[in-house]
Structures are given as C-alpha cells and as structure tokens.
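Data card: per-record layout.
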Amino acid sequence: MANPFQEQLLKAGLVSKQKVRDAKTQKRRDRKAKVDDGSAALKQEIAAKKQAQIDKDKALNEQRFAEAMEKGQVRGLITEFKRCAIEPPKDAEVKFNYTLGTKIFSVYVTEKLQSQLLNGQLGVVRHEEVSYLVPHKLAERVNLLVPDWCGYLWQAEDATQVVEEDDPYADYVIPDDLMW
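The structure for this 180-residue chain is written out next.
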C-alpha cells in the first residue's frame, strides 16, 4: 500500500482490506466523473453553437436563392454558364479535383486549362451532375447567388501561404499543381 495512514488503520484493526479497496474505487470513480461532466457539457455547448450557425447559414442561402428565383436571375445564370462553358478536350489527361460541400469531384483538363484554373482565370460550376468550366467573373456571380453550385473558385487568400517560424520545411516550395 502506498498510503501509510491506511496501513496504520489496518494494523490497528479499525478498517478491513475490503473497506480500503472500496475507498480507492470510489475515489477513482469520483475523479473520472468530474472529468467527464465538464467535457461533455462543453462538447454539447460547442455542438449546439455549430448547429445554430449551420442553420443560420442555410436559412440565409435559401432566402438568397428564393429572392434570385423571383427575379429570374437563376434561370438566366444557368443559361449563361451553359452558353459560356469551356468544353475540355476529350483527350485531356490532367485530373483536376475540387470539393463541393463534403464531396470531391474531378474533371479532366489540359495543362493549359489547369494553369488557368489555378491562376484565377477560370472557375468550376457544378449543376445537375455536370461540371462546367466557366470564366472567373461568371463563377463569382454563381457563388454569390447559389453558393451550392460553385465547385472551384480561385480567391486571392488561397494564393498566400502562411509560413510558421519553426517550420523545418519552409525552404521547400510546394507546387500548386502537385498530383498525388
């Protein structure tokens, strides 16, 4: 036993070995209960805040979409990006991946189209299970009206790289077109 006070009580016959074991078990349970109560409440509070923000964003997007539908802007936007879409060649070999929501989609492009996407001259719009390569200005308009359709849109903050002071790989540049 590590506790000399417990040893003295056992020698004196005031407590039994079972009582000592029960006391240790209860102490361990109390310690565990204190940790779990605090973290569970905190996790629940954070999850509630995240859900409230998601609901708020979804309501705002639905409101914008409804307003745009009333004005007929969405129908005009659909016809415009279908008309202005750049058709990638059938023999394109470079796979360009982009995320839309929680899914990853890909479109095959040429090296020239890939460099235009990475430099901010083109964007990707996905509507009715079809990906369209469109000019950047049009992709920005789609992102403003219906952000759920905008698959890839180059933005200026994407180009800046954050360099940590203690980063051991700071001298090595990662290319934008790195394929895994």
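Known properties of this structure: The helical segments are 4-12, 17-71, 73-84, 111-119, 136-145, 156-159. The mean pLDDT is 81.

See the next section for split statistics.
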